[in-house]
């Protein structure tokens, strides 16, 4: 049985165009590689160990595919999707051994209990506050028993309207900030049990961030 569709954000096309514009600069800056950040790399390694034997894993909002490829190198059966066609062009070029497709987190047709793991790795913060719970619920239904979701996002209150990003490239999107407790509550409401949480403070390159891991128990 397919997962019901979720509401399409009104600004989805604008956000897609913005990520298409920043894709080249994002790749040139070498962003998204967890190997450069020991705590994030450790979280991804633990996630890989937990889901490796459970079935396919989907990296939702994979960008140019660095994290997808990192997991594939660790024996995970993983594929990636991204809203931005230009990001996917880079992903396919940089990581030809991995499978990538163009799709939004809000229009995935995921079958129930079909995935061992799902990633929302800095890819869900553009979703409006009334849409994110629907997306998380679709992820939860798609996980097998014991399957895990890992989410990483920006910590804070309110929203930030962005007009430029990644070295001054013009963009038009909203970054929705979440407190870790709020995010954990949404994940629980979606039907998952939070099992780990990593909070990192601002370090000059990133603002405060949270990595949340949750498991489907029933």
Write the topology of this structure:
Blueprint: H1 12-28, H2 38-51, E1 57-60, H3 66-73, E2 78-82, H4 85-94, E3 99-102, E4 115-121, H5 132-142, E5 143-154, E6 159-165, E7 169-176, H6 180-189, E8 193-200, E9 209-215
Parallel strand pairs: 1-2, 1-4, 2-3, 4-5
Antiparallel strand pairs: 5-9, 6-7, 8-9
Helix pairs in contact: 1-4
Overview of the molecule:
The protein has 218 residues and is of the alpha/beta class. It is 32% helix and 28% strand. The strands form 2 sheets. A 7-stranded mixed β-sheet has the order 3-2-1-4-5-9-8, sandwiched between helices. It has a two-stranded antiparallel sheet with strand order 6-7. Helix 1 packs parallel to helix 4 (85-94). The relative contact order is 0.18. The mean pLDDT is 95.
What's the count of strands? 9
Tell me the number of helical segments per DSSP (H or I, 4 or more residues long).
6
| Oligomerization state | single chain
Radius of gyration: 16 Å
Overall, the morphology is globular
Order of helices and strands: HHEHEHEEHEEEHEE
**Low-confidence parts lasting 5 or more residues at pLDDT below 50?**
none
Distance between the termini: 17 Å
Q: Which strand order spans the largest sheet, edge to edge or round the barrel?
A: 3-2-1-4-5-9-8
- The proportion of residues forming helix, as a percent range, comes to 25-40%
Reported for the largest beta sheet, the result is:
7 strands, mixed
Strand content: 25-35%
Q: What class would the helix/strand composition place it in?
A: alpha/beta
Mean pLDDT across all amino acids: 95
